[in-house]
Design a protein that fits this description.
This protein has 107 residues and is an alpha+beta fold. The protein has 2 helices and 9 strands. The protein has helices spanning 6-18, 66-72, and strands spanning 3-4, 25-32, 38-45, 52-57, 60-65, 76-82, 85-91, 97-98, 104-106. The strands form 2 sheets. The chain has a 6-stranded mixed beta sheet. A 3-stranded mixed beta sheet has the order 1-6-7.
Length: 107
């Protein structure tokens, strides 16, 4: 399961309300790339695809394709706006190594 912190929920809902073309889903995934081998991605979408898992957590409809889901099980999506940077953070217990910016990881 993937969790969404209250801070991430609040920020996602704020962004979704600001968009002119309302997209009801938040899509998270993993793709090859980044300095540690795998990168996180986060986007908004209008439809669920056949290979997507739909996770309804904390007022958010989260879509994750089945391949990415295997890498993200147990992950908590958080939002940070502290002095060290502002943005979404994936706290992934499966990652054995992460890069300094936190945007890529390896298993």
């Amino acid at each position: 399961m993937i969790n969404i912190s209250d801070s991430a929920r609040d920020r996602l809902l704020h962004i979704m309300q600001q968009e002119e073309d309302k997209k009801p889903f938040v899509r998270v995934g993993v793709e090859s790339g980044g300095c540690s081998g795998l990168s996180y991605k986060l986007d908004f979408d209008i439809s669920k695809k056949e290979d997507d898992e739909l996770i309804q957590k904390n007022q958010i409809n989260l879509l994750v394709n089945k391949k990415s889901f295997l890498y993200l099980v147990g992950t908590t999506l958080e939002f940070s706006d502290g002095l060290n940077g502002k943005g979404f953070v994936f706290n992934n217990p499966n990652a054995s190594r992460t890069c300094g910016c936190g945007e890529s990881f390896s298993l």
